[in-house]
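dumping this here before i forget
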Amino acid sequence: MGLGVITMTQPNCPLNQPRCGLEAGNPVCPKCGLDVRVRYVSEEAGLLAASKAETTYWQSHAKALEEQINKAPEPASSSTPVQSRVAGQVFQDLPIAPQMVVLPSGSYLMGTAEHDADADSSEFPQHNVTIGYQLAIGRYPVTFEEWDACVADGGVNYKPEDQGWGRGKRPVINVSWDDAQAYAAWLNQKLGLQANDPTRYRLPSEAEWEYACRAGTTGNFSTPTGQLSDNDATYDASAVDGTLSPKTGKKHDKTTPVGIYAPNPWGLYDMHGNVWEWMQDDFEESYRGAPADGTAWKTGAAVRVLRGGSWVSLARDTRAADRGSLSPGNRGYGNGYGFRLARTAP
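structure:
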């Protein structure tokens, strides 16, 4: 790197958003404070200025988040009194907490019929599951914005990489099952929910997740057509995948912000694709002996369940019944492992 003159025309955005915060007619970036008119005597000086600006921004951003977090909890605009929480209701316990959707109770057929050519043997046997309680589940996967609020509050120390794709409303990635447990524990602590409280925030059981994903439908996908296209979800639609995804479309190279596609019939977003989601359950190779009441299956197995597929998955891996598994400490760098929360609604 020789001495010279460079122009800082695209300073790095401290929020790692898809585009710079520069606005037309304003040479100073409102996100990082860098002035594109400034010319530096060397490339090293320019990079140092960008680094200092980014550090300053994050310090002020963390302070603002901490001030917001330490305020007395107030219901968000979407919140409603506990007594009126009914199926379809969206609520949010804290401004920094995920939005939750109350689901109707009911029964469904979990898994896949053994004659289904797209099924894996771990999806057998099909069995009836009853969700006989008021289940609430995350409207979206937990986002970087929500995770970073937890970091700013000291709830977790780990700040996962975003692969350069952006943070904010994108689903948090590069998190393990253990990380997801730590996030839920932080939120429970903020709300004063004790260890024996049945309404604590937690990961969903896979029976709960599949119930929520199907949303009263019985096919592979809860889309209006029962098939999947790149108008429905973030997944690898570049190849025809039998009758599941019969038309070629876009091959995504990263996650997308949550909520950009239509929700399923129960108002839940990104249930197919975008990020794999951790479940509370231990993974077993079949459903023989699985609970039928919606509770998580804890067998002592060494691996945990993942559901939903991700941005890099083919359609068959994003089906409502598809199952994956990994060790609880695996963060799956770059592959899109995230989570959404559940709780029994109070």
